[in-house]
Amino acid sequence: MDDLPTLTRKPFGLRGVLADYLGTAIALAVLVLIFSLSTEHFFSRATFTTIANQIPSAILIATGMTYILIIAEIDLSVGSVLGLCGAVAGICLVKFQWPLWLAAACALAVGLSCGAFNGLVSIHWRLPSFIVTLGMLEMARGGAHFVTNSQTQYIGSAVAAIAETSFLGLSLPFLLAVILVGGAQLVLARTVFGRYMVAIGTNEEVVRLSGMGL
Q1: Which of 36, 75, 83, 174 supports an S-S bond with 43, CB 3.0-4.6 Å?
Q2: 126 and 179, same structural domain?
Q3: Range of lowest pLDDT (12-21, 116-125, 189-198)
């Protein structure tokens, strides 16, 4: 156990970030260059702010999925669970006239329950997470249709304050998503919990035999 921090510790600074993500940054730069040369309207502030403001949900899902992939598991239900949480929040806002914070808390509780169910079933019955989350995908999708009665609900005015709050053209959800990514990276790189996750994904049997976290 004493060797684990030494084996998994990486530079935590500009040099460490560049070492980890240089390849990804180069690939992104090449894509931006190709699209910029293909059309004269792509390389603009409006384009980049529009893209940034449309991806907060994808950023949140990718952050959580990163933790799952690090421990060598998979979750196929994240998209459907996100839809179910959105449906629950919409019903709470439109049908029950709940305040935004309470509707958001209810949606988070639904998402937490789905994730806890996936984890408990996978661990208790030792079922592959692929199979368990595939079942949850269908359950969450059916649940979303059930709570909304397959009808579209307009909730724009209830969440308008979030969408209208921005800084330099970047929406509040995007800024919060960036903060979340930074916090998630900090947990993985600088905490014992994060190093345990990396160790589990590397060799779960060794982690179990060594008694880590027990």
Answers
A1: 36
A2: no
A3: 12-21
Same domain, 173 and 155: no
With H, G, I as helix, E, B as strand and everything else as coil, classify residue 152: coil
- The domain tally of the chain equals 2
- Whole-prediction pTM: 0.80
Tell me which residue of 119, 124, 28 sits closest to 75, measured CA to CA. 119
Q: Determine the Cα–Cα distance for residues 54 and 3; give it in Å rounded to an integer.
A: 42
If you write DSSP's letter for every residue of 28-89 in order, what string do you get? HHHHHHHHHHH-TTSSSHHHHHHHHHT-HHHHHHHHHHHHHHHTT---S-HHHHHHHHHHHH
Contact indicator for 183, 63 with CB cutoff of 8 Å:
no
Is there a contact between 60 and 78 (Cβ–Cβ < 8 Å)? no
CA 59 to CA 84: how far, in whole Å? 18
Q: Let me know if 197 is exposed, middle or buried by CB neighbors in 10 A (0-12, 13-18, 19+).
A: buried
